[in-house]
Automatic annotation (TrEMBL):
Keyword terms, alphabetized: Signal
Signal peptide: 1-19
Thioredoxin domain location: 1-144
Organism encoding this protein: Chryseobacterium endophyticum
Protein name per UniProt: Thioredoxin family protein
Length: 148
């Protein structure tokens, strides 16, 4: 009986330790690869500016190239309202924690560019006025101006 209980506890605790959140993973990756982190708070199924941001910037080739070229790590903290779009309990909890730390006013969309240490370099409240190319060029310029 003790063996079974010990095994169950080991499994439970291994999930707890393994479930490192996306921001911590992003910080580690960004530090290793000298990348920036872009954290976006969105309401993917109810916030019209959020939907436009994703369609006109995040889903474009210009933006995707930032990820593939090792310029940034992208995290989307989504807060959908429709039942069919609900996230897992763990992801909801993690997104709420990110919001508590970085978006306490509950602004949507809200986008933060930070370095690997979590220092905020720039933030955008609402839909950025730039198009995808200008948005990505600004991120590249901020990265180039970072100390090595």
């Amino acid at each position: 009986m003790k063996t079974i209980l010990s095994a169950i506890l080991m499994v439970v605790f291994s999930f707890g330790f393994h479930a490192q959140n996306r921001l911590e993973n992003a910080k580690k990756t960004a530090a290793e690869n000298k990348e920036l982190i872009l954290l976006n708070f969105s309401g993917s199924d109810w916030c019209i500016p959020c939907i436009k941001l994703h369609k006109n910037i995040i889903e474009t080739e210009d933006f995707k190239k930032l990820e593939s070229d090792g310029v940034l790590v992208y995290i989307n903290a989504d807060f959908p309202r429709n039942k069919k779009n609900q996230l897992s309990a763990d992801l909801k909890k993690e997104n709420a924690s990110l919001a508590d730390q970085y978006n306490p006013k509950g602004i949507f969309p809200y986008t933060i560019l930070m370095n690997a240490d979590g220092k905020i370099l720039k933030s955008w409240e609402g839909l950025p006025s730039e198009n995808a190319l200008a948005f990505t060029e600004e991120i590249k310029e901020i990265r180039e101006n970072q100390k090595p």
